[in-house]
Amino acid sequence: MKIAVMQPYLFPYLGYFQLIKAVNIFVFYDDVNYINRGWINRNRILSNGKELLFTLPLKEASQNKMINEIDSNISEKWKTKFFKTLHFSYSKAPYFKEVYDLIKSCLDCSNGNISSIAMTSIINVSNYLNLKTSFEVSSDKYSDSKGLDRAHRLIEICKRSKATTYINAIGGSDLYEKGYFNENKIELSFIKPKEINYKQLKNDFVPWLSIIDVLMFNSVEQVNEMLDQYELLL
Fold it and tell me: What pLDDT score was predicted for residue 7?
């Protein structure tokens, strides 16, 4: 049994979905501190051949609050502007209509907290890609482990899920001691995405944008092939 634990990000990049596909259980880590200027409520898309940052507005966001404690502050004006930007940027992309509708399904009823909106974006995209991974939410299933330190809590989540392998994003390779996980009979691995290129518009390729960009230019079958293009570092 393989498991991963990550904060919920809004329409995250391809590597996030590689991690989802690589495991049996994916836990949304929603009861940890919000990160200012992180990827929880913002991401990048392609516009005029360059990356463009978009940010979903929040109410009283603070690193002193849990992710699931921060509400969205989305106005009709913001949504209108955002969808106009999507239309301007991607209307000529081969999969524009279905992906545009997918994004609208995530944001049209977006009056909850940022955690639920981000999770919805990830789950809806995963369903679109026919991924079979099971999703859990840390505040629902593992809230009583919140007082443990970072590595200890992850090990506790692994044990309760009967997972024997914990896979983390490559950015966490400096955070966790492999020996500590081995002592608890859990294999620790890190997922490292390979370099992936695909045809966008007439621009030079802009890498590692939101999954929105990947979906606009690639079929479900093509995206699933990309999701397998990674190395697992043991």
Answer: 97
User: Which of 208, 137, 168 lies closest to 20, judged by CA?
Assistant: 168
pLDDT above 90 for 89: yes
pLDDT digits (tens, 9 = 90+) for 39-81: 999 999 999 999 999 999 999 989 999 999 999 999 999 999 9
Residue 194 DSSP label: P
Pairing between β-strand 25-28 and β-strand 50-55 as defined by DSSP bridges: unpaired
Of 38, 52, 196, 180, give the one whose Cα is nearest residue 118: 38
Among residues 182, 178, 156, 179, which one has the least CA distance to residue 168? 178
For the beta sheet containing 2-6, the strands, ordered from the edge strand earlier in sequence to the opposite edge, are: 134-137, 25-28, 2-6, 165-169, 187-193, 230-233
Within 13 A of 198's CA, how many CA atoms are on the CB side? 20
Domain layout of the chain by residue ranges: 2-233
Name the average pLDDT for the chain: 94
Which run of H or E residues covers position 192? Answer: strand 187-193
Q: Which residues contact 54 (CB under 8 A, 6 or more apart)?
A: 42, 43, 44, 45, 82, 85
